[in-house]
Amino acid sequence: MKLKHYLITDPIFYGTTPDTIEGSLDVIYSHSLPDFALFRDKQSTNYRDLAETFVAVSRSYKIPHVMLHRDYTLADELGADGVHLTSSQFDAIVEAKNLGLYVLISTHTHEEALKAQKLGADAITYSPIFASPNKGEPKGLEDLKEIVAKIEIPIFALGGITTEEQINAVSTTGAYGFASIRYFVP
Asked: Relative to the CA of 180, which of 5, 19, 169, 173 has its CA 20 to 30 Å away?
């Protein structure tokens, strides 16, 4: 099975205005069309406007799974396919599912991964797999293989994935896909 590709935005690479988001996505989507795309911006005060642009541009490129970060009510309002919850939002899984959203949640331990599955998440990210700026000690491929064997929902490897060599290594673990910010930036 081919690994699913999950693009995650960051204002450092995509900007903080609707025009810069649209321009950046046009460049990136002209090189690579991911299976999942997440609008993630923890700092801008105009998140709603930026998210609206992100959803519209991603839809125009027919990205199969358009996701917003944290805000499941906004994801529902803007017609996104789903939400990517943070590792402190386990209590929001059921509410987001009740809105009909695809729910991904960030996990960093086997316990969190099992909890996400039990609460009904559709998928998880598990991180960091490789060294990634400010993300702590990498878990590595063996740990990723262990969690893949423990749970039934799809797992996206996340953290420090920037090369084809790393993607090929992740593909040997049984993971559903990989998620990255920097891999997709030309």
From this structure: 19
Predicted TM-score (pTM) of the model is: 0.96
Work out how many domains the chain is built from and give that number: 1
CATH number, residue 92: 3.20.20.70
The parent domain of residue 89 ranges over 4-184
Provide the pLDDT for residue 150. Answer: 96
d(CA 138, CA 140): 6
Query: CA geometry: angle at 106 spanning 102 and 108, to 5°?
Result: 150
pLDDT at 166 over 80: yes
Phi-psi region of 120 (alpha: psi -120 to 50; beta: other; left: phi over 0): left
